[in-house]
Amino acid sequence: MNDTLTPVLTSTEYKAFQPNDGLRYDFHNGELIALAPESDRHEKQVKRVADALETESGLRRCTVFHTHTKIETQADVTYLHADVSVTCNFLEFKSGNPIMRQPRMLAEVVTADSRDRDRGFKWQQYQQVISLWYCLFVDPENKTIDVYTKDTGSGAWHCRTYRQPDELIPFDRFEMAIPVKNFFV
Asked: Which domain of life does the protein's organism represent (predicted)?
């Protein structure tokens, strides 16, 4: 008996895939993964996180995207939608391709529905992105932000949780710090 599953799509087909059902889809090992529609509250929180980053001078040479950018975590294997992504490679989207291969920062707004997937599978995949420096998990319900920072020497990831509204979150590689309160609606 053959237990091998036939992929639904190739990565080339996924890259050209334009769904007309109003949903967004991640892609992993040939499988399409439908994402739950975003609530208005979630969309506002995602926009707030993107706005907090866009106003920082440390990112003036970078571009902040939210919601519809696909992140390539493994070439031709896994593409995921991050809530917010930052790239400093100005050639990243020159061809009009909506796939980001060199993000420096990713952020997920964690909800009850997305928590397990965001902090499990997606975080596991994000750690494989060589260019990634920071990954944020923003929890609007608890007003906390878990910031994962990649060590420049070892490549190991370190996490710190920020809770106090006036506490500054340092992003040393961007030479900036942002107060926790700036990330919340």
From this structure: Bacteria
Task: Give the residue among 106, 105, 87, 107 at the shortest CA–CA distance from 97.
Answer: 87
| Most confident among 70-84, 92-106, 126-140 (mean pLDDT) | 126-140
Tokens of 136: 């944020």
- Cβ-Cβ contacts under 8 Å for 148 (sequence gap 6 or more): 123, 134, 135, 136, 137, 157, 158, 159
Contact between 54 and 63 under an 8 Å Cβ cutoff? The reply is no
Q: What pLDDT is recorded for position 96?
A: 64
Q: 15 or 177, which is more confident? A: 177
**The pLDDT of residue 122:** 96
Nearest CA to 79 among 133, 24, 41, 42?
24
Backbone region of residue 33 per phi and psi (left: phi > 0; alpha: psi in -120 to 50; beta: other values): beta
Number of domains forming the structure of the chain:
1
Domain that holds residue 125: 40-183
Helix (H) or strand (E) holding 124: helix 123-126
CATH number of domain containing 76: 3.90.1570.10
Task: Evaluate whether residue 17 is within a structural domain.
Answer: no
- Residue 1's pLDDT is 41
Task: Pick the more confident residue, 139 or 23.
Answer: 139
Residue 8 maps to a domain: no
**pLDDT average, residue stretch 132-161:** 97
Within-domain flag for 145: yes
